Amino acid sequence: MLKLSYSELVKEIHDKAGVSEEEINSRVNKKLELLKDLISKEGAAHIVANELGVKLVQVSSEKKLKISDVMPGLNFINLDAKIISIYEVRSFKTEKREGKVANIFIGDETGTSRLVLWDTKLIELVEKSKLKEGDIISIKNAYSKENNGNKELHLGNKGEIIINPEKISIENIMTQRQSNQKPINMLKENEFAEIMGTVVQLFEPKSYFACPTCNKKAEFVNGVYLCNEHGNISAKEIPIVNFFLDDGTDNIRVVCFRDAAEKMLDNKFESVKNNPGEFDSLKNDVLGKQIRISGKVNKNMMFDRLEFTAHKIQDIDPKQLIEELKRTN
Length: 329
Hints:
Blueprint: H1 6-17, H2 21-35, H3 41-51, E1 64-65, E2 77-86, E3 90-93, E4 98-108, E5 111-117, H4 120-127, E6 136-147, E7 150-155, E8 160-163, H5 177-180, E9 192-202, E10 206-210, E11 219-221, E12 224-227, E13 231-233, E14 236-246, E15 251-257, H6 258-264, H7 269-273, H8 276-286, E16 290-300, E17 305-315, H9 318-328
Parallel strand pairs: 1-2, 5-7, 15-17
Antiparallel strand pairs: 2-4, 2-6, 3-4, 4-5, 6-7, 6-8, 9-14, 9-16, 10-14, 11-12, 12-13, 14-15, 16-17
Helix pairs in contact: 1-3, 2-3
C-alpha cells in the first residue's frame, strides 16, 4: 500500500515542508516510541507528514485496504469491516459550525478502528437503526486521522456506506471472543482483548470537559472552553469510572469513558457525581457483579502496571461466567 520507501518519504517531507531530515527522523522516532510496535517506521513517517500538512500517498479509489494498512493522512480509503459497537449520536457547536457526529467501532481480520460519521445521511443510518452490531459494511471514500495516538477513519459528504454487501464476509475479528478472550494474567501491552470477571472495587466517578467535535480534552481559559483544533466550544462533560476486575488468575484496573462509564454507573452519572450517598448505594450493587469487557491493554507508566481501557461492557450470567472461566483456565 505504501508506495515510497522510508528514505523517499523523508525526502518528500523535507522537500514539501522545509523541515530538516534530522528533525523528521527525530519526530519519527518519537512516534515509534509512543506507539511502540503498533506501526512501522514508514507508518510513523506518514503520521509526521500529516502533522506537518504534507500530503504523501493517495490511495487508489478502486483498491480496498485492510484496517492494518491504514495510516493517518490518507484519503479516498475503501475497506470492508464488521460493526463491533455503535455509540449514540451527539450534537456539537463551535464558532465555525454546528451539527451532529456519530461514532462506530469497527474491525476486520487485521485490526480495529473508530469510524466517525459527519454526513447527515450517514448519521441517519445510526439514528434510524439501519446499522446494527454485527453488520458488515463496505466503506468508500473515507479519510484517516490520528487521535490520541490512535488512527481513525472519517466519512464526510463524499463518503458512502453499503450495508451487508453480497459475497463479503469477515471472520476472526480480534475483539471477538473466540479469537481474543484472555485471562487477565495473560494480557500484553497494546493488545485488544476481551476479559471477564468480577468487580471487586469501584471508585468514585470523575470527569473532564472535551470538544464535542473531536473529543479531545478542552482547556478552560478566561471563562470559556477552548479546543486547540476547533476554538471556542460548548464543551461536553465526559464521565470517567475506574474499577478493579478479578477473574481468578489476577486482577486489573479498568478505566471507562463515556458510554462504558455510564454503563457502570447505571446511567446515573449526573446524580451520582455530587451525591456520595447515592454512589455508596450504587457501589454496593456493583461490587460482586460479573461482567464481560472488550477493550485495549495499556501501560500506566507512572505506576508501571498494565491497565485496561474499556470500549464495551456487558453483564453476564454468573453460571455462564463459571463455565467460560473453566474453559479458559
